[in-house]
Structures are given as C-alpha cells and as structure tokens.
Amino acid sequence: MPINRPAATALAAACCLFTAACGSSSWDRSSAESTQAAASKTGYPVTLDNCGRKETFTKPPSRVVVMNGASVAEVSTLLALGLGDRIVANQQGYGMSEVPGRATAIKKLPTGNVEPNDAYDIPREAMFGLRPDLVLSVTTYGFDQKNGFATREQLEQVGAHSYVSPQGCDDDPSKMTIADSYRLLRGMAKIFNVGDRAEKLIAASERHIAAVSNKVKAEKKPKVMVLFSNMSMGGNDFSSIFANGIVNDILAKSGGTNAFSNTTKATFADLSKEKVAATDVDAVVVISYNDPDPAAYAKKLLKEFPQWPAAKNNTSVTLSDSMYLGPSNDLAVEKVARLLHPDAL
Asked: Partners of 163 in the beta sheet?
C-alpha cells in the first residue's frame, strides 16, 4: 500500500541523511524550520475523522469520483465550491435544480463511461479503473462490498481516500438538518483547502434563511406533504413521503410543519392511500428526481385528494436539489415560505 507522507516529513528525513554525511547541525535546523514554514503555507496535511476513520490528505485531490446514492449533494457541493474540474466521474443528477445553470453543469461533467451495476452505481473494478484519489458517497452503502462496490479499505490500498457525507455513517438520514449541509461544505472545503469559499457560502445561506424565517415566524404553520414524484420505495401506494430528516428543518424555517412526521421515525413513510386521504394537507411539495414533469404529478395528486385544503386552494410547488442535503437549502426555505405565506413575503 503506498503511503502518502507530509512533504515536511519527507524533506526533513532527506535533510537528516544529508547532515549525517556533512556534519552540519546548524544547516539541519534552518532547513527544517523553512520546510515546516512551507508546509504551513500549503495548508496540508489535513486530517478528517469520517465515520470512525482517519483520512489524512497531503495535497488536494485531483481525481474525484462521485457515486450516485440517489443524491446530488456531493456533486453540487463541489460545484458550489468551484471544484468541478477535479471530478473525473460523476454519477449524480436530479435532472433539474433551483440554482440557475447547475443542472446543465452537472450534465456536462465526465461520467467515466461507467456502466452501473445492479445496485445502480459504480462497480468495484470500474472504480479501480478510474484511478481516483477521492471517492464520495452520501452513505456507507456506496462502499458496501455486498453491493459490488469497492470498500474503503480496498480504495485505501490503491491510494484513494474516501468520504461519507454527514449523517451517512449509519445510512439513516432521518436526523439530517440544514446544519449537515454546512458540515458537508466545510468537510469538502477542508479537504481542498478552500475554507474561505465555504464560509462565504454558509454565511450567505444563513442570512437568507434568517431573513425569510423572521418574516413568517408569527404565522400559522400549515401542514405540508413532501414527497418524491412518481417514485416507489415500499409496498404501499405512497412510499416516498418524507416523514423526517432535512425537509422538516426546511419546513420549520419556512413557517410550516410536516403533515406526516408522526407516522414513523424513519426518513420515509410507507402509507396506504386511505391513510393519506385521512390526513389534512394544507400544501404539497413535490420533489423531482429525474422526473421531466413533476408539476403534472402535483396536479394529479391534488385531483386525487380533492378534500385536502391544498387541493381546494391549489397550493403546491415543485422543487428538486434544494430540498435535500446540499448547498442550496436556503432556496427551498424561501420557495416553500412563499407557497405557505405569500402575504408575509
């Protein structure tokens, strides 16, 4: 296994060999001091504790592979930080975005010409062929050998680092909040030594969310249904309804509440049509995941449940990447707030 060591350590070792032959201890001290100063200027090495693993970077990665994971959090974060040129293979995409130009930018990224396996992601041998120095996955699922993926240990053996996004260590995003999107930004920024970029993005997002939240905090909190369009994730008629996770934080900051948060402790609720029909829904947020017409799904849903206040008032909105982990949650907060409280904004 190749071992990457800090430049300061390697050069200091070389200096020791040189001074052993020449016998100049004063040269050794001054050289070591200058080497340490150089290392300090580069910002490396940096170490992250990620899902119980220590990942130490001696330089910024240049061959990044982004696994699918039904997410766009990782690729969007890299693009927001101006690091798209480091990506050699990306498997993520929602097909649309609340950020102008982002969907197009994602579509233009290299895919590595990988044929996904039965788990809809990059198989082990194809991963090795990409020669990555950093592999990103939204959860540990992307490093599970049972699914035909390269494990984190196997990647380490070929000189590649790996990173699991916040709340992904136990494959359970039910406790995810907007703060985790900021954690992802800071994690990527630390790896690539662009902390100033991350802090500017986070500060702008926090200001935007605070401005919206302050305008709606005194308003009544409508009950909102949030779900993926045309997606089946369980055995019942409605299995892609968000019950917990980051959407609840977004709803709270938008002046709303999740109509189905008490149905399960898991991220998604798997409910019958009867259960959905019996629940009061004041507004609907449809999240598109590669659905070319999520608005048609929202319209169909409101027609299916005419007794809902949401249907009577035609209160719905379609969103995509801003409603999930990623750098654009502030856009979702504003759009949902405008849906729920148009007079306040």
From this structure: 136
Q: State which amino acid sits at residue 37.
A: A
Please measure the distance between the N-terminal and C-terminal CA atoms of the chain and give it in whole angstroms: 57
Tell me if 227 sits within 8 A of 220, measured CB to CB: no
Q: Which residue, 337, 342, 184, 338, is CA-closest to 250?
A: 337
**pLDDT tier at 40, thresholds 50, 70, 90:** low
Query: Residue 237 carries which DSSP code?
Result: S
At 154, list the tokens: 């196997």
> CA-to-CA distance for 43 and 188, rounded, in angstroms?
14
Which residues, other chains included, contact 218 with Cβ-Cβ below 8 Å and sequence gap of 6+? Answer: none
pLDDT in tens, 236-282: 999 999 999 999 999 999 999 999 999 999 999 999 999 999 999 99
Strand 64-66 vs strand 87-90: parallel, antiparallel, or unpaired?
parallel
Burial class (CB in 10 A: 0-12, 13-18, 19+), 327: buried
